[in-house]
Write a structure and sequence with these properties.
Elements (H helix, E strand, L loop, with lengths): L14 H10 L4 E4 L45 H4 L2 H9 L2 E4 L6 E6 L2 H10 L4 E4 L4 E6 L5 E5 L2 E4 L5 E2 L9 E2 L2 H9 L27 H17 L4 H16 L7 H13 L4 H14 L3
Parallel strand pairs: 5-9
Antiparallel strand pairs: 1-2, 2-8, 3-5, 3-7, 4-5, 6-7
Helix pairs in contact: 6-7, 6-8, 7-9
């Protein structure tokens, strides 16, 4: 895993220039609004038409060629960052954000002086970055992201983003058990194992075009593997996989709830929520006119 938090950076002007510099140091980045929320970087997603949550802080199920919003958009690819599709976002950007989990790190976001004082007493020293109201403490290693683990303290790592405020000072320390314990004690529920959800399979109405059960089994197994093997852009991969399965097997009546359950289980094992699975399946059905 790359721990891509640059020690220092060249003097640059413009958010895109800064983003390209950080991306060259293997830090996955994305444009950030002046109000700290990420953009939808294509016309189809700009106004949450894809199902993203307010201010695009959580991605929806998007059919764009590449993930274009929230933490899922973070990339080190200079061609994507400089693409025409993202040009409008960079022109209006108020800053640059990055995906801590994608960089192999965890950010403990301390939002006021009291939180900073608590961290200095309770956590091992590590690299720190000054923010407008407090500090970011950055540790080597990843975990789930949780807000409000205590007063004015958030944890940002996987499936989250943090604003880039400079490289900070100090040496990265390993993620301590004390931070993981904070997440375990947080009120957010922890899913201990993926679970499938019963979603009605699309109705058939005609004779099955697949000559043997092995054809369907091979298709479902390949779809499961595609989801399991993805290392990034999980939301987009899940949606496109659901779309492919429905396109091949959705109209002939051979696709059952058991098959759908297997796909949902694979998606949830990669961190997808039950809601995102259901939405992705429904959006794929809508896209195919089912």
């Amino acid at each position: 895993m790359t721990h891509a938090i640059p020690i220092r950076r060249e003097a640059r002007t413009g958010h895109l220039d800064l983003a390209l510099h950080l991306a060259a140091a293997a830090l996955p980045v994305l444009p950030l609004r002046a109000g700290k929320g990420p953009f939808g970087n294509c016309p189809a997603c700009e106004k949450n038409a894809c199902g993203g949550r307010p201010n695009m802080k959580t991605p929806g199920t998007c059919a764009c060629p590449l993930p274009c919003h929230a933490w899922a958009a973070a990339t080190t690819d200079p061609h994507v960052l400089s693409s025409t599709g993202w040009a409008s976002s960079w022109r209006r950007a108020g800053g640059v954000a990055y995906h801590p989990g994608g960089a192999g790190v965890t950010v403990v976001d301390l939002d006021d002086a009291d939180a900073v004082a608590w961290a200095r007493e309770s956590l091992p020293p590590t690299r720190t970055v000054a923010t407008t109201r407090g500090e970011h403490w950055i540790y080597r290693g990843t975990m789930r992201s949780v807000n409000r683990v205590r007063e004015s303290v958030d944890i940002k790592s996987t499936m989250s983003y943090a604003r880039w405020r400079g490289p900070g000072t100090g040496t990265l320390a390993e993620l301590p058990e004390a931070v993981r314990t904070l997440a375990e004690k947080a009120p957010a529920a922890v899913r201990t194992a993926p679970r499938a959800i019963a979603v009605p399979a699309p109705g058939g109405g005609g004779e099955c075009r697949h000559r043997t059960p092995a054809y369907l089994e091979r298709g479902i197994a390949m779809a499961e593997q595609r989801i399991t093997d993805t290392a990034s852009a999980v939301h987009a991969t899940v949606y496109r996989t659901f779309l492919a399965v429905l396109s091949a097997h959705g109209r002939c009546g051979c696709l059952t709830e058991a098959h759908i359950g297997r796909l949902f289980t694979a998606a949830q094992a990669k961190g997808e929520s039950p809601r995102h699975c259901t939405d992705a399946w429904a959006n794929a059905q809508t896209a195919l006119g089912m």
